[in-house]
Amino acid sequence: MVGRYHKLQNRWILAASCFFYAWWDWRFLLLLFATIGIDYLIARAIALSESPGRRKTLLSLSVVSNLVVLAFFKYFNFFSDSFRAFLEFFGVSVQSASLAILLPIGISFYTFQAISYVVDVYRNKLKPAENFLDYAAYITYFPQLVAGPIERGAHLLPQILKPRIIRVDHLYTGTHLIFWGLFQKVFVADNLARLVDPVFLHPSNHDGVTVLIALYAFAIQIYCDFSGYSDIARGIGKCMGFDIMLNFNLPYFSTCAREFWQRWHISLSTWLRDYLYIPLGGSHGCRLLTFRNVIITMLLGGLWHGAQWTFVLWGAYHAILLIADHLVGAATRSVPPLQNKLASRTWFALKVIIFFHLICAGWLLFRATSLSNAAELAQALLLRFHPFSSHQWHSIFLPWVFYTGIFAVTQCYQFLKKDLMAIYRLPRFIRWTYYYGLLFAMLFWGGLSGPTQFIYFQF
Is residue 207 located within the same domain as residue 225? Predict the structure, then answer.
């Protein structure tokens, strides 16, 4: 009876996930299931084959087919336009081959999830799903289908295959995550978007101080937008008896690039590590080979985010930060840590502040609409930065403080307690006062200009 009930649960999850995705555009549901069918058959064929050559051929077929679909829908126009611009630089005029292609929502996320599944089957780290519908439910599971986290088969698939037990504490923690995620999105991210967009779209109309505050605002906006979605996905999963992986762990308290990527978009950074960086050789080689592997990984990681050169440069920038982190770490490895507690905490805070500004410099590239737009923003920061004579920053600074205040205090409390669920563990009266405060803020100030699409839906 339990097995039958569990089977019906999985079919209902699959049907709900299909309806969820088809609500956006039903035609791309056919594309999604075409790739699901190919990967399902290939993974089973790999598991049944004992020939190393045949297994490798099947793996290559799966990876190439997934990447071809992703490249066509996401990168065809990018590479076409880039090639045309390259030829025109040398005086060769060619006609543009751009196509009016609609990007399937979530294609970057479910493509990477599918690739990791087939690779893990190939590496004998995972047994393939026997039932096609169970595998389809794993790929299409709606809370994390369109914007992650990018789940692994070894983590989520067993939760699909085995009966799930939903306890009361799952509902409580799940509801807490959903509520906190909604606050991050509706109150913080959507309101900050109203401050950020005008400055980034028209940087020539603003001075350097205003651009800097807008950059701070975007750093919080993109975090709350993406982390908010991830928390909602995890919360819905909790309420359904699933454990979806943690995707963010207080990244703005990082002191170096390596730590940042252990805390930011964890599902992507670990995917790039396990399926790209380590297969390239990782750090098992000379320093130059390690740096090469870092550069390749981060360039492709930047390109994964979008078909623009700004994303490629953003990836290159983070590669430079990681290489610098490696060099600094090697040079200071023999330096003893500070023994004085006050000096140690002061140095830690200083490192957090410095690295946050380095991250913000990267966000300028990430948010810029083009290379020329990035140049305009940088010009405003470097050439029109007059903090004592600026009269524009008042209109953006106070709203930025207002919309980020509760979020910043909460993050600091979570960091001090070393617990992302620290608010949930507060005494009931304090906790419910906090919840009502969030609800009041969302009802009265949430999304004043209307809802905005999640930023990572475009990836």
Answer: yes
298: in domain: no
Residue 425 inside a domain? The answer is yes
Dihedral angle at the C-alpha atoms of 184, 411, 177, 2, nearest 10 degrees?
A: 150
Please check whether residues 178 and 152 belong to one and the same domain: no
Q: Is residue 114 part of a domain?
A: yes
pLDDT one-digit tens code per residue, 315-373 = 999 999 999 998 887 666 666 776 777 878 888 899 999 999 999 999 999 999 999 99
- The rounded distance, in Å, linking the Cα atoms of 328 and 183 is 38
* Domain that includes residue 34, residue range: 2-91+101-164
pLDDT digits (tens, 9 = 90+) for 224-260: 999 999 999 999 999 999 999 999 999 999 999 999 9
Angle made by CA atoms 162, 164, 168, in degrees to the nearest 5: 165
Q: If you compute the radius of gyration of the chain from its CA atoms, what whole number of angstroms results? A: 23
One domain, residues 417 and 453: yes
Residues 77 and 184 in one domain: no
Q: Which two tokens stand for residue 231?
A: 């928390």
* For residue 337, cis peptide bond before it (omega within 30 degrees of 0): no
Looking at the 3D structure of the chain, how many domains does it have? 2
Catalytic residue among 305, 318, 326, 357: 305
Over the stretch 262-297, which tens digit does the pLDDT of each residue have? 999 999 999 999 999 999 988 887 889 999 999 999
- pLDDT, residue 340, reads 75
Cα gap 228→186, rounded to integer Å: 9
Question: What pLDDT band is residue 1 in, cutting at 50, 70 and 90?
Answer: very low
Q: Are residues 124 and 180 in the same domain?
A: no
| Among 280, 282, 272, 327, CA closest to 303 | 272
Annotation says 305 is catalytic: yes
